[in-house]
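Case 456 in the screening queue. Each case pairs one protein sequence with one candidate compound; here the compound is flavin-adenine dinucleotide. For every case the pipeline is the same: read the inputs, emit a complex structure as tokens, and attach any notable structural observations.

Predict complex for case 456.
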Amino acid sequence: MTATTQKTVAIIGAGPVGLAAAAHALERNLKPLVLEAGPTVGHAVRQWGHVRMFSPWEYGVDRAAERLLAATGWNSPDPKLYPTGGELVERYLEPLATRTALRDHVQTSSRVISISRSGFDKVKTKGRENAPFEIHYQNGAGPKTIRADAVIDASGSWSSPNPAGANGLAAIGEAEAQTRIAYAMPDVLTRDRARYAGRTVAVVGSGHSAVGGLIDLVRLKEEVPATKVIWLVRGADPAKAFGGGANDKLVARGELGARLARLVGDGQIQVEREFRITYVDETDGRLRIGSGSASSGRHAVADEMIVATGFRPDLFFLRELRIALDPALECPLALAPLIDPNEHSCGTVRPHGARELAQPEPGFYFAGMKSYGRAPTFLMLTGYEQVRSIIADIDGDRAAAERVELVLPETGVCNLRPAAGPEQGCCGGPAQQDAAACCAADEAAKSKGATGCGCG
Ligand SMILES: Cc1cc2nc3c(=O)[nH]c(=O)nc-3n(C[C@H](O)[C@H](O)[C@H](O)COP(=O)(O)OP(=O)(O)OC[C@H]3O[C@@H](n4cnc5c(N)ncnc54)[C@H](O)[C@@H]3O)c2cc1C
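Case 456 output:
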């Protein structure tokens, strides 16, 4: 490809997936421009820098990024060790963005605020696909505009956490009680220790962040016994948060759930089941967190509340683009059946790429954590495969875009246990041959001409 036809790819967000997209783009002689809202790369990961990851280094490094780093004499981490978020930034994302050829392609303190197509509003169709994207962003020097042939939105969802209300809305009084509420994973053992030590802390949610937060709070309680931990669970069965345990191929992730199960069993955590938060009010300097109506429901009293109920994508700056999302998950339509926690009984998600992530707006793709919308269980490795495929698609290499080059580790979580029994793993283990099958039982069913085992 000559310099005059070199395609420009705007990438929103310099997290692990956005930077990986840029590395793949460089390898294909495309021109990436990464716009990052934060003052440094890995801005979102830094916020959870104290958290030890549940996947080891071997699942945290993108292959194209690794090739760029190798050329600089990078001292690669031990693939079997588990980094913290902070180490992921320090040992991988920072060197990638500052010491490789990517350094000329990343702009920090640049928040994308809107995107359209040059000369076309959302309604106008004829010739639309040939018009470059126009991206408006804000940096210290004021509003700026760039143009690009393709856009990858890898802006994550860290900055839009779900609220405490069981109905998906902020609970009544939640906004007013913000000084006693933290979202996702505050650093209860070090940075934010003074805020939580010796206090009664209510944790809401049942995903990995909630599980990690509960475990850390019990550790704090061991050091400062006056600390009390309450877990507010929306469902009837808290065991759902315990995950795949020994069946989880990511050992550390399985172990997290198993540890929580032990702590609950030992009575270290007060569990409030079927607690559907409707209101929060501050009385006598404490939080009164209510389930049901203020006059007839239950309530829990705490000094602090940690809301770890997941994230939702910020779609506001995409308003002028033609976007089609699943109405429940807010993720690309073709991806929804693979990751819908209501339908997809197998927690293991098969790899996917450009085909599932493309939008009605030609040249625009979601990638990374944001591509999952409101669904949980996103893995960085999934994101690396997504952007490998997307960049191939932008480069016109359909064969590479369609190819699946990844086998994902199983979660071991499966609502549907096949006759073989749970000891055989999730739906009898991962699919061996058929990339369209999500597990062994699914593959066996499809090879016999059936529609599948029901896993996804
Ligand atoms: C606590 C925690 C632990 C996790 N542990 C693991 C793990 O062990 N293994 C694993 O595989 N996955 C893990 N994940 C899931 C996931 O892989 C990570 O969240 C990962 O950081 C997602 O990468 P990303 O690049 O998609 O998004 P992010 O890392 O969130 O990066 C998005 C970037 O976009 C920027 N941005 C946002 N809006 C804009 C805008 N409008 N304009 C410009 N820039 C913008 C943000 O500042 C941010 O830097 C974990 C997630 C969390 C929250």
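Case 456 observations:
- Confidence is low (pLDDT under 50) at residues 414-426.
- Residues 208-223 form the longest helix (16 residues).
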